């Protein structure tokens, strides 16, 4: 965060938060005139949890989440719904380099229940549902599309323990060893995946 300039902070907020605010602001009168409407904003899993080295991005996605909730409360009397989508890693050109290496992808996404990245069509299907009449009684919801697991399950599934009992013991100790490198176990699974990915990359470069 200390290295983030004010200009960079404002630029990211201008795109991710102000952009959503302006879109919402200008569509609401049209929806009020129609007597109904459904707004679906795209946030991120990092609008719910924190991760290293992305304070500005996470702050904008958290802003989108709470702006959506405020919209849902303020405009429910006008039959206007507002929900947000919180995807994890999606297979796009922006993430191609991140998930190109199978070991890195496994380390990063192993902490998730599905243990894989999402196709864009899987995200758009969730958006379509929230925008449709099938979701007519859903508003102010944060739809999380990358569910995390318990830390001991993560450690076991990634092959860092030979049993679930050993995994629980490692979590209690607060750290694991990856390729001779000590990795502290953080408070939530996705960050553990990131730490392991860094350790694996470091081990391969030696």
Structure, described:
- The protein is mainly alpha-helical and 206 residues long.
- The protein has 9 helices and 5 strands, in the order ααβαβαααβααββα.
- α1 (6-16) runs parallel beside α3 (55-75), α5 packs antiparallel against α9 (189-205) and α7 packs across α8 (164-173).
Features:
206 residues; mainly alpha; three-stranded parallel beta sheet; two-stranded antiparallel ribbon; 9 helices; elongated
What is the succession of H and E elements?
HHEHEHHHEHHEEH
Global shape: elongated
Look at the helices and sheets and give the structural class.
mainly alpha
How far apart are the termini?
29 Å
Q: Count every helix, treating DSSP H or I runs of 4 or more residues as helices.
A: 9
Quick summary:
The chain has nine helices and five strands. By secondary structure, the protein is mainly alpha-helical.
Layout of secondary structure:
Elements: H1 6-16, H2 18-34, E1 37-42, H3 55-75, E2 80-86, H4 96-99, H5 102-109, H6 120-131, E3 142-144, H7 151-157, H8 164-173, E4 175-178, E5 181-184, H9 189-205
Parallel strand pairs: 1-2, 2-3
Antiparallel strand pairs: 4-5
């Amino acid at each position: 965060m200390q290295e983030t300039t004010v200009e960079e902070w404002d630029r990211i907020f201008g795109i991710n938060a102000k952009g959503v605010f302006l879109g919402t602001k200008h569509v609401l009168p049209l929806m009020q005139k129609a007597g109904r409407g459904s707004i679906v904003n795209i946030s991120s899993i990092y609008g719910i949890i924190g991760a290293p080295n992305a304070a500005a991005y996470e702050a904008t996605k958290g802003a989108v989440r709470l702006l959506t909730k405020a919209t849902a409360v303020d405009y429910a009397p006008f039959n206007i719904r507002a929900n947000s989508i919180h995807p994890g890693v999606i297979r796009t050109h922006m993430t191609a380099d991140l998930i190109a290496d199978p070991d890195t992808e496994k380390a990063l996404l192993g902490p998730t229940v599905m243990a894989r990245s999402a196709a864009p069509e899987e995200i758009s299907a969730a958006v379509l549902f929230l925008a449709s009449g099938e979701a007519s009684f859903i508003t102010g919801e944060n739809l999380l599309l990358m569910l995390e697991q318990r830390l001991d399950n993560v450690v076991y599934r990634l092959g860092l323990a030979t049993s679930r009992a050993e995994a629980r013991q490692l979590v209690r100790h607060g750290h694991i060893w990856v390729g001779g490198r000590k990795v502290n176990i953080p408070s939530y699974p996705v960050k553990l995946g990131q730490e392991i990915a860094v350790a694996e990359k470091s081990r391969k470069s030696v």
